[in-house]
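User: Please fill in residues for this 58-position structure.
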C-alpha cells in the first residue's frame, strides 16, 4: 500500500512538472516564432509579397 501511494504521488508530481515544462517550452517556441515572423516580415515584406504573388498569381 505504501509503495502504491508513492507511485501515485510520483505520477501526479511528474504530470504537473511535465505540464509546466511543456507549457513553458510551447510558450517560448510561440514567442520566438512570432518574433522571427515579425522580423522576417519587416525585413523581407516586399520579397515575400513578390514570391507570394508569383506563386499564387495574385
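Assistant: Residues filled in for all 58 positions:
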Amino acid at each position: 500500500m505504501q509503495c502504491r501511494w508513492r507511485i501515485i504521488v510520483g505520477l501526479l508530481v511528474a504530470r504537473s512538472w511535465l505540464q509546466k515544462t511543456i507549457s513553458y517550452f510551447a510558450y517560448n517556441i510561440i514567442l520566438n516564432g512570432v518574433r522571427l515572423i515579425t522580423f522576417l516580415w519587416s525585413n523581407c515584406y516586399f520579397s515575400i509579397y513578390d514570391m507570394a504573388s508569383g506563386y499564387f498569381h495574385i
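For context: The radius of gyration is 23 Å.
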